[in-house]
């Protein structure tokens, strides 16, 4: 014997059944979706008929002009779909004296250069931070690299050869043969960065004239005879000598000036050095002077007339042992 429902009970049961059916249908018509935006993941459910744009609008996600949405806004949402919003970055590209700002989602550096409307040459240098893809506020500088080749004639220096001269005092020298520069024809590759020369390299060289070495004879004699006396010396040199007389001041070594004392540049001849000066005789470096620099001497003499007679002359000076 079956159950007989009262009329009112059948109505209630029908409504409950219908409600359950509608709820089931509501969930059945929805599918799970993951929304990835601004570093967050949002789990949600949407109707089969929804587009990517509908989902973003429902979650109040604003899309900028250069932002990237995957899949596209008009795409129909699929079950377990992942919707990814990638925000555009601002990047500055500097090239050819101009600065360009672009907005783009993260892309490789070379792609950002292309988007800025800049053509990259084969030898050009990209100067930027070391990243695979661009980062916010990145600055990318393009250094234009060009090269040219020139044929340039250049002189080549001569070398100096030294030989001994046993008739010349040590410290003195004489030129046996003057040096002559050579001449070469060089093919030079010049590299420019943004129009400024940064490098030169010789890629081919042809000798037009060989250089001729200079030959100098160096003295070896360390003993000479002067006035019947034998002088042993370390070296000889030519120096410019002037003369001075009493000034009322002591010498730099604290002595009263006297004949045989000379003023020197102590960086050339140390004070206390014994000398023999042709035309003056034996002397000692005992004084200095503000105008005495390098290979110069100032010889002490008894009176002004002797100084005027001496004048200024080049003399041979022996630095004694």
Protein architecture, described:
The chain has 321 residues and is mainly beta. The N and C termini lie far apart (151 Å). Helices cover 13% and strands 49% of the residues. The longest helix has 22 residues, at 7-28. It has 4 helices and 21 strands. The strands form 5 sheets. Strands 16-20-17-19-18-21 form a 6-stranded mixed barrel. A 4-stranded mixed sheet has the order 2-1-4-3.
Short description:
By secondary structure, the protein is mostly beta strands. Helix content is 13%, strand content 49%.
Proper CATH architecture of the largest domain: Beta Barrel
C-alpha-based Rg, rounded: 49 Å
Q: Report the CATH topology name of the largest domain.
A: Barwin-like endoglucanases
Q: Unreliable segments (pLDDT under 50, ≥5 consecutive)? A: 20-28
Tally of helical segments: 4
Strand elements, count: 21
Terminal CA distance reads 151 Å
Strands across the major sheet, in which order? 16-20-17-19-18-21
Q: Largest sheet, described in full?
A: 6 strands, mixed, barrel
**Overall body shape:** elongated
- Mean pLDDT over all positions: 90
Q: Given this structure, which CATH class of the largest domain is correct?
A: Mainly Beta
Keywords:
single chain; 321 residues; mainly beta; Ubiquitin-like (UB roll); Resuscitation-promoting factor rpfb fold; four-stranded mixed β-sheet; 4 helices; 21 strands; 49% strand; elongated
């Amino acid at each position: 014997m079956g159950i007989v429902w009262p009329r009112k009970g059948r109505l209630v049961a029908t409504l409950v059944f219908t409600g359950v059916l509608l709820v089931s249908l509501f969930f059945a018509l929805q599918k799970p979706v993951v929304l990835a935006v601004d570093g967050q993941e949002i789990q949600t459910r949407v109707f089969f008929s929804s587009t990517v744009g509908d989902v973003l609008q429902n979650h109040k996600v604003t899309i900028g002009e250069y932002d990237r949405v995957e899949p596209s806004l008009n795409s129909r949402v699929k079950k377990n779909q992942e919707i990814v919003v990638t925000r555009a970055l601002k990047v500055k590209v500097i090239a050819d004296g101009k600065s360009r700002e672009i907005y783009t989602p993260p892309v490789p550096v070379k792609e950002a250069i292309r988007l800025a409307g800049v053509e990259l040459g084969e030898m050009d240098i990209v100067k930027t931070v070391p990243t695979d893809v661009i980062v916010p506020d990145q600055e990318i500088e393009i250094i234009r690299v060009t090269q040219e080749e020139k044929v340039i004639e250049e002189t080549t220096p001569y070398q100096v050869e030294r030989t001994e001269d046993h008739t010349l005092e040590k410290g003195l020298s004489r030129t046996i043969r003057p040096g002559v520069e050579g001449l070469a024809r060089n093919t030079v590759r010049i590299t420019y960065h943004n129009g400024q020369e940064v490098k030169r390299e010789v890629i081919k060289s042809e000798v037009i004239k060989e250089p001729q070495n200079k030959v100098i004879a160096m003295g070896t004699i360390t003993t000479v005879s002067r006035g019947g006396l034998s002088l042993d010396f370390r070296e000889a040199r030519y120096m410019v000598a002037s003369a001075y007389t009493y000034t009322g001041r002591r010498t730099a070594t604290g002595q009263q000036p006297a004949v045989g004392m000379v003023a020197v540049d102590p960086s050339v001849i140390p004070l206390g050095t014994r000398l023999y000066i042709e035309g003056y005789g034996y002397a000692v470096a005992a004084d200095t002077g503000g105008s005495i620099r390098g290979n110069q001497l100032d010889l002490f003499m008894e009176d002004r007339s002797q100084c005027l007679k001496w004048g200024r002359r080049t003399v041979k000076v022996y630095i004694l042992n």
